[in-house]
C-alpha cells in the first residue's frame, strides 16, 4: 500500500462530541472506521411531508383493521362506514372527530388507543335534507362506550339540536367500557340527558344493527323510532349470563332481547327488518316524511287532486254487519296517496294501527282500530302504542286522521289489573293535548269510553265524519237490551222474539246513522266512496289552525 493511499484512509476527522458531529451520533470516533452505515438523514419538515403523513394516517383510519373487518362481515354485519354509505346521500358525509383517542389508563387499556375510539360521528344528507348521526364501530373495542366515545356522541347531538336537524344513532355495541369505570356511566348519562332535551324538538331515530346492551338500551327507548334487524340485533339491560346467574334461567341473546321479542312483545322496536340494506332504506323513507324540527312543517309532495278523488272500493271493503271483520289497512290504502304508507309497530298491539302517509301530498298520521285483530278493541298495549304516536305527530305538526271501528275496551281482570284505566288515560290525554288538525272518521261501531278516547268531538277533534254504517252508543244494541230489559226478558214467554223486537227498537231510536249528527257530535254523514276527498278537503280547511296550549310548566301524563 502506498503512502498516498494510507494518507487518504487516515485523513483527520472532526473532533467528536458527546452527541457526535453536527448533533448526530459519531460513527468515526477517534478516527476509527466502523462497519455501521451512516444514519439516514432526517426528512426536512415541509408541507408536502405533512400532507403525506396526514394522508397515510387518514387512509389507515378509514380502512380499519382487516382481520376485525373480516370478522364483522362473517357475522353478517356491515362495518360502521359501510352503513353510513348506505344511509346517506352519496358523497354527503362530513366526519367529525376522526382522530379522537381515549386518554384512559389502567388495566393495560393505554396499550390500545385507536383513532375514532370505536364510534364514527358526523353529518350528511338524506334526500338532500340535513341529518346528524353516529355509527358505533364494533371492530374497535366491540363498540364499547368510554369517555372519548361518549364525548363524540355528545358533540354531534348538540350540533343536531342547535341546527334543528334529525338525529340518527346506528348502534352496535357491547355496552359500557369496563376499563373506564364510572366515566363510561357518566358518558351514558350525557347521552340520555340530550335525548330528553331533543325530545319533541328534533326527530330521533335509533337503529340497532348488533348488540345494544346495558345503559345503551335506554337511548333506544328514548328515541322516537327504533329499527332492529333480525338475527343480528339485540337490546337488553342485562345479558343472558347475568340472567342465568341471578335467576337460574337459561336464555339466548335472541330470546332475551332479539328483534322478534321487541317487535312483537315489548314494543321497544318500531320497525323490524330482515337485513341492514332494507332497514337503512326504510330509515331514509321515514326521514323523507319528517320535518327537520318542531318549528318546520313536514316536507310536502305535489298535490294529487285528492279533493275530487272518489274511491268506489271503500264501499266494498267494510261489511255492513258490525260483527264481520275486515282489514283496516285496506281502508288506509284507499285513503292515502298511491296506497303508500309506513306502518309503525306492525306486530305489537296489532288491534290498533298507526301509520305515516300522505294525503294530497301532505304528511298525515293515521290511527285506526283493526277489526281483524280482537275485533279492534282497545287494550293496554294498543292504548300505549296509539298514545305515543299521537304525541309524536302533535310535537312535529303532523295532522291526525282517526279511523274508528271500536267495540270498546277489552274487559277482564287481566286488563284491569294491568292498569287499563291508567293506560287508556294516556291515549285520552294525548288526544286532548294535541293542537294539530284532527279529523275523526267513524266507519261502524263506536261504543262506550273507547268512542270518546278515539278522538271524539267531546275531546276536541276538529272535524267528525261518519259513514251511514256508524253506530255511536254506550254499547251495542244487543248488550244494551240485555241490561235494560233483563227482567222483561227473563219473564217473557219467547225471550228471543222479544229481544229481537227490543234490539230493533233500540237501534231505530238511539243508533240510527244520523242520531249523532242531529246532536252535533258528527259534522257530516258521508258516502264511503268520498272519504278520501272529504278528508283531503278537511285537512285543507284546517291547514292554518292555530291553537296555543295553556301556560304551564308541563302536564302530568298518567305514565
UniProtKB/TrEMBL annotation:
Domain of life: Bacteria
GO molecular function: propionyl-CoA carboxylase activity; transferase activity
Gene3D superfamilies from the UniProt entry: 2-enoyl-CoA Hydratase, Chain A, domain 1
Pfam families in alphabetical order: Carboxyl_trans
Keyword set, alphabetical order: Transferase
Domain CoA carboxyltransferase C-terminal: 302-552
Gene Ontology CC, one term: acetyl-CoA carboxylase complex
Domain CoA carboxyltransferase N-terminal: 40-302
Organism: Streptosporangium minutum
InterPro entries according to UniProt: AccD/PCCB (IPR051047), AcCoA_carboxyl_beta (IPR034733), ClpP/crotonase-like_dom_sf (IPR029045), COA_CT_C (IPR011763), COA_CT_N (IPR011762)
Designated name of the protein: Methylmalonyl-CoA carboxyltransferase
Region of interest: Disordered: 13-42
Amino acid at each position: 500500500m502506498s503512502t498516498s493511499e494510507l494518507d487518504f484512509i487516515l485523513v483527520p476527522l472532526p473532533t467528536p462530541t458527546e452527541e457526535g458531529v453536527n448533533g448526530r451520533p459519531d460513527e468515526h470516533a477517534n478516527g476509527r472506521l466502523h462497519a455501521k452505515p451512516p444514519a439516514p438523514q432526517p426528512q426536512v419538515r415541509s408541507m408536502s411531508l405533512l400532507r403525506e403523513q396526514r394522508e397515510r394516517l387518514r387512509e389507515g383510519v378509514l380502512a380499519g383493521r382487516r382481520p376485525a373487518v373480516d370478522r364483522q362481515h362473517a357475522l353478517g354485519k356491515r362495518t360502521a362506514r359501510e352503513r353510513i354509505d348506505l344511509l346517506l346521500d352519496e358523497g354527503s358525509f362530513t366526519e367529525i372527530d376522526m382522530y379522537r383517542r381515549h386518554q384512559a389508563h389502567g388495566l393495560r387499556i393505554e396499550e390500545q388507543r385507536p383513532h375514532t375510539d370505536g364510534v364514527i360521528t358526523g353529518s350528511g344528507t338524506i334526500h338532500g335534507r340535513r341529518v346528524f348521526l353516529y355509527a358505533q364501530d364494533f371492530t374497535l373495542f366491540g363498540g364499547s362506550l368510554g369517555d372519548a366515545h361518549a364525548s363524540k356522541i355528545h358533540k354531534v347531538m348538540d350540533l343536531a339540536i342547535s341546527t334543528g336537524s334529525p338525529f340518527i344513532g346506528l348502534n352496535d355495541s357491547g355496552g359500557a367500557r369496563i376499563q373506564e369505570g364510572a366515566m363510561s356511566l357518566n358518558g351514558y348519562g350525557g347521552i340520555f340527558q340530550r335525548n330528553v332535551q331533543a325530545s319533541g324538538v328534533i326527530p330521533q331515530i335509533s337503529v340497532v344493527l348488533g348488540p345494544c346492551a346495558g345503559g345503551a338500551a335506554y337511548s333506544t327507548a328514548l328515541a322516537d323510532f327504533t329499527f332492529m334487524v333480525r338475527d343480528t340485533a339485540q337490546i337488553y339491560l342485562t345479558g343472558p349470563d347475568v340472567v342465568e346467574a341471578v335467576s337460574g334461567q337459561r336464555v339466548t341473546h335472541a330470546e332475551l332481547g332479539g328483534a322478534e321479542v321487541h317487535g312483537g312483545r315489548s314494543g321497544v322496536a318500531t320497525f323490524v327488518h330482515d337485513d341492514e340494506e332494507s332497514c337503512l332504506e326504510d330509515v331514509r323513507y321515514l326521514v323523507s316524511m319528517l320535518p327537520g324540527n318542531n318549528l318546520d312543517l313536514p316536507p310536502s309532495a305535489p298535490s294529487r287532486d285528492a279533493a275530487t278523488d272518489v274511491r268506489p272500493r271503500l264501499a266494498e271493503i267494510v261489511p255492513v254487519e258490525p260483527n264481520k271483520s275486515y282489514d283496516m289497512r285496506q281502508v288506509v290504502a284507499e285513503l292515502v296517496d298511491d296506497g303508500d304508507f309506513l306502518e309503525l309497530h306492525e306486530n305489537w298491539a296489532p288491534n290498533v294501527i298507526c301509520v305515516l302517509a300522505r294525503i294530497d301530498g301532505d304528511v298525515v298520521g293515521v290511527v285506526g282500530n283493526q277489526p281483524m285483530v280482537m275485533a279492534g278493541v282497545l287494550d293496554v298495549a294498543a292504548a300505549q302504542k296509539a298514545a305515543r304516536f299521537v304525541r309524536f305527530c302533535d310535537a312535529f305538526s303532523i295532522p291526525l286522521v282517526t279511523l274508528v271501528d271500536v267495540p270498546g275496551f277489552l274487559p277482564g281482570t287481566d286488563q284491569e289489573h294491568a292498569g287499563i284505566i291508567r293506560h287508556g288515560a294516556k291515549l285520552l290525554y294525548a288526544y286532548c293535548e294535541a293542537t294539530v288538525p284532527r279529523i275523526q272518521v267513524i266507519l261502524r261501531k263506536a261504543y262506550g269510553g273507547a268512542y270518546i278516547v278515539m278522538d271524539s268531538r267531546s275531546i276536541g277533534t276538529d272535524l267528525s265524519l261518519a259513514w251511514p254504517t256508524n253506530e255511536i252508543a254506550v254499547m251495542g244494541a244487543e248488550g244494551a237490551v240485555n241490561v235494560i230489559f233483563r227482567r222483561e226478558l227473563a219473564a217473557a214467554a219467547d225471550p228471543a222474539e222479544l229481544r229481537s223486537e227490543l234490539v230493533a227498537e233500540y237501534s231505530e231510536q238511539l243508533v240510527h246513522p244520523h242520531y249523532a249528527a242531529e246532536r252535533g257530535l258528527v259534522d257530516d254523514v258521508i258516502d264511503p266512496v268520498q272519504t278520501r276527498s272529504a278528508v283531503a278537503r278537511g285537512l285543507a280547511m284546517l291547514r292554518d289552525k292555530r291553537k296555543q296550549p295553556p301556560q304551564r310548566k308541563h302536564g302530568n301524563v298518567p305514565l
